[in-house]
Design goal:
Layout (H helix, E strand, L loop, with lengths): L3 E5 L6 H7 L2 E2 L3 E3 L14 E8 L7 E5 L5 E5 L2 E3 L6 E9 L4 E10 L2 E11 L6 E10 L3 E10 L10 E9 L2 E8 L5 E10 L4 E7 L2 E10 L4 E12 L6 H15 L1 H19 L1 E4 L2 H17 L26 H13 L1 H13 L1 H10 L24 E2 L6 E2 L3 H4 L2 H17 L2 H22 L1 E3 L4 E3 L17 H20 L4 H11 L2 H13 L26 H6 L26 H7 L6 H11 L11 H10 L3 H12 L1 H4 L5 E2 L2 E2 L5 H15 L3 E3 L2 E3 L10 E8 L2 E8 L3 E5 L1
Antiparallel strand pairs: 1-8, 2-3, 3-4, 4-5, 6-7, 6-12, 8-9, 9-10, 10-11, 11-18, 12-17, 13-14, 14-15, 15-18, 16-17, 19-28, 20-21, 22-23, 24-25, 26-27, 28-29, 29-30
Helix pairs in contact: 4-20, 5-6, 5-9, 5-20, 6-9, 6-10, 9-10, 9-11, 10-11, 11-13, 15-16, 15-17, 16-17, 17-18, 17-20, 18-20
Bound molecules: beta-D-glucopyranose.
Length: 727
């Protein structure tokens, strides 16, 4: 059973939630878990990866393709629609093992009981394809009108983005193309169907859609079905997307649903063989962890795509479909350990967007690479200066995420270096990786101030991971990560010594000679806040301990509106020690070997009651550090929180008045980290793989695979110890 996620009953109030929870995808698109008959009010979406558009001055966001699965069944002109019909039973489920979404609804109407079932999957073997089989049966013989086609009237947060719709139909294939308003991207969706029955077919178009209507008399008790192969292409993929989409959907239909499904299922089985993590003794944790892994697998850029993974995955346009530090710091470890090729693709996205990062640094008067806080294609920053709307005045609030969250560049450098070290693939450094690291280091050296009287470099006026405290000085995490970036820049230059020509050419190209001296100075003199000798505490930033020491509950009780933003200039948390998310604790987790257990424990205990976990990135880090200090029972609730965030739907839905719901791939990645790096205590150092188990009470055993360079290892862990062997 722990492969199935299911819900029963109509539960219309959860329509948006279920759209996220039952998401399918294949890296190229995500298709929300909505019903086939739904219109844009229910937020269906075929959300495309890496293709964006802007409407007027509204936020740029990814494009939702026309909905190729749209289908509505009328029996004696009565719509059989989950929203309005009389329902006898309804269930929706996700089979994670096979990555198939299923729905079954029994309606009661003029033709007695009418049962509708559908299975759909986002093909894992050709990520332009979406397949569906839709079947129905009636208790009494009746006239049926089936409408199925491509609905271009799609859900948009800041749209509409698609214009100039044009239509095509030939035999069993129909297609819709549209052009995006800002950049003129062409989007084409084609759909070919095969019917198990005959009927009178009429093609009709609406302002933004093309549909077929098939009418016939359905016999009592007989089962009817049709299959649909939907293909999506854009002008970013091919020159004439319409042609390609038609071709792909036609040939997929010819291959047949059954064969397409069996190939898809085979591919998924293979993925699970490598990425599943088994937990014995805790069904609930098993299901939640698998679900987290499922979410990561449906987002992984496949087939050579060099897009990255947005903060809300492919569940819609929330967070502008933008890529944050979430990818490198929270998702990358899963891919690095189970699918290094995908990890490399994610890294390539950052290498390809280096020019955008350079442009951003220059815009603020700095040198080097200042990566986008909310990165879209070409690395431009989608984060606006007014990123939150005040709930009281409805005015956009000035926030400094874009200008001051400088730790983003260190996350990029960290990700590249981790990938290089794990895979030992020098081509990553030679094909742009080293250049990115050097440019990130240069950015920090250009951002830093030398405080002569203190004889040290400082990073002033920044925002650390805790976004509730803006424009602080010497955020410990940021300073430590900047120091790390400088350190790896030095190491990268060292690593290139045996390719002297390349090294020289790179230094020349970047005009880096003087920077190298500056890096050496910074390496020695960049201030990194240390644990206090008496308390063992690391101060999150200069002056943090002087802020009001209110509890999270006290701060929450000061809210006038539940959607109110806690940070910014006047937020309820801003002048208190309440923090949004793991900050010092994240630093201690990443650099755990540099701090004593006592320091880690004291900081965990100090910061934990003061953390609001207003970001889904937070609980997993508390779980990880708790495991590291030998307290798996402290870690367990945080693990469950991170692993079930998209199952329960219990997450923040608003920042000010802005809807931020969707799936949470960073938390999903965090669940994998908490399980494998936390509870199992997996570590790989200089090629040596070890485990230090800290299993929660209920867990008897964990087993999983990891890949290190070319080798795959099986790892088994019990409370007593672990076994690791090469496969
Ligand atoms: C968090 C950031 C995170 C972003 C996207 C924000 O709420 O504070 O750290 O990158 O969400 O997940």
């Amino acid at each position: 059973m722990s492969w199935i996620i299911s819900e029963a009953g109509r539960q219309l109030e959860k329509t948006i939630d279920f759209g996220n929870k039952f998401l399918i995808g294949n890296g190229y698109f995500g298709y929300r878990g909505t019903m086939e008959e739904y219109g844009k009010e229910e937020l269906p979406a075929c959300n495309l990866s890496g293709i964006y558009d802007q409407q007027g001055t509204a936020w740029r966001e990814p494009i939702n393709a026309p909905n190729g699965l749209y289908t509505q069944l009328f029996v004696e002109d009565e719509p059989h629609d989950l929203r309005t019909g009389e329902i006898v039973a309804h269930s929706q489920q996700l089979d994670m093992l096979r990555a198939i979404h299923q729905r079954k609804t029994v309606f009661s109407g003029r033709a007695g009981k009418v049962t509708i079932e559908s299975d759909r999957f986002a093909s894992s073997t050709d990520n332009h394809l979406l397949h569906m089989i839709y079947s129905f049966s009636l208790e009494k013989t009746a006239r049926v009108r089936l409408v199925t086609g491509i609905d271009g009237d799609v859900w948009d947060i800041n749209g509409p983005h698609l214009f100039d719709y044009s239509y095509y139909s030939e035999s069993r294939t129909i297609a819709v193309t549209a052009v995006s308003g800002e950049l003129g991207h062409k989007i084409a969706v084609a759909d070919t169907i095969s019917l198990s029955f005959e009927g009178e077919v009429r093609i009709f178009e609406t302002e933004k859609g093309l549909f077929r209507q098939i009418e016939f008399i359905a016999q009592a008790g007989k089962s009817y079905h049709f299959t649909k192969a939907v293909a999506v292409y854009t002008s970013q993929d091919v020159e004439i997307p319409l042609e390609q989409a038609i071709k792909a959907s036609f040939s997929a239909n010819k291959t047949g649903y059954k064969l397409a499904k069996s190939k898809h299922v085979e591919e998924w089985k293979e993925r699970w063989t490598m990425s599943d993590v088994l937990i014995e003794g805790d069904e609930k944790a098993q299901l939640a962890l698998r679900y987290s892994i499922y979410q990561l697998l449906i987002l992984a850029p496949q087939h050579g795509q060099t897009t990255s993974i947005p903060a809300r995955g492919l569940s819609g346009q929330t967070y502008k479909g933008a890529v944050f530090w979430d990818t490198e710091m929270f998702m990358l470890p899963f891919f690095l350990h189970t699918d290094p090729e995908t990890a490399k693709n994610l890294i390539k996205y950052r290498i390809q967007t280096l020019d955008g990062a350079r442009a951003k640094a220059a815009e603020y008067g700095f040198r080097g690479a200042f990566y986008a806080w909310e990165s879209q294609e070409n690395g431009q920053d989608a984060c606006s200066d007014y990123n939150v709307t005040d709930v009281f005045t409805n005015r956009p609030m000035r926030t400094y995420f874009r200008d001051k969250q400088i730790h983003i560049s260190s996350a990029v450098a960290y990700g590249i270096w981790q990938t290089y070290v794990m895979t030992d693939d020098r081509s990553l450094l030679l094909n742009g990786g080293a250049e990115v690291i050097l440019e990130c280091a240069r950015f920090y050296s250009s951002y830093a101030y030398y405080q002569a009287e203190k004889k040290r470099f400082e990073l002033v006026d920044v925002i650390g991971p805790d976004e509730y405290h803006e424009r602080v000085y010497n955020n410990a995490y940021t300073n430590k990560m900047a120091a790390y970036t400088i350190d790896i820049a030095v190491k990268a230059l060292e690593a290139l010594r045996d390719v002297p020509d390349y090294r020289e050419a790179l230094i020349r190209k970047l005009d880096y000679q003087e920077d190298m001296e500056q890096l050496a100075a910074m390496n020695a003199e960049l201030y990194v806040p240390e644990p206090n000798d008496e308390t063992g505490l690391i101060e999150q930033f200069d002056g943090y301990f002087k802020l009001e020491d209110a509890t999270v509950e006290a701060v929450r009780s000061r809210l006038i509106d539940p959607k109110e933003y806690w940070g910014g200039a006047y937020g309820v948390a801003a002048d208190t020690q309440v923090l949004k998310q793991a900050d010092v604790v994240l630093l201690l987790t990443l650099f755990k070997e540099e701090y004593t257990e006592e320091v880690k424990r004291k900081n965990w205990q100090y910061y934990e009651p003061r953390t609001e976990h207003g970001s889904s990135l937070s609980p997993c880090i508390y779980a990880l550090l708790a495991c590291d200090i030998g307290d798996p029972e402290w870690a367990y609730p945080y693990f469950m929180k991170t692993a079930s965030v998209d199952l329960t739907g219990e997450s923040k839905q608003f920042a000010g008045t802005i809807y931020i719901g969707g799936t949470h791939p960073a938390a999903n990645g965090g669940a994998w980290m908490a399980a494998v790096l936390g509870f199992a205590g997996l570590e790989i150092r200089e090629g040596k793989i070890t485990v230090t188990p800290q299993l929660p009470e209920k867990w008897q055993k964990m087993s999983f695979k990891i890949q290190v360079k070319e080798d795959v290892y099986q790892v088994e862990v019990t409370k007593e110890g672990g076994n690791i062997w090469k496969q």
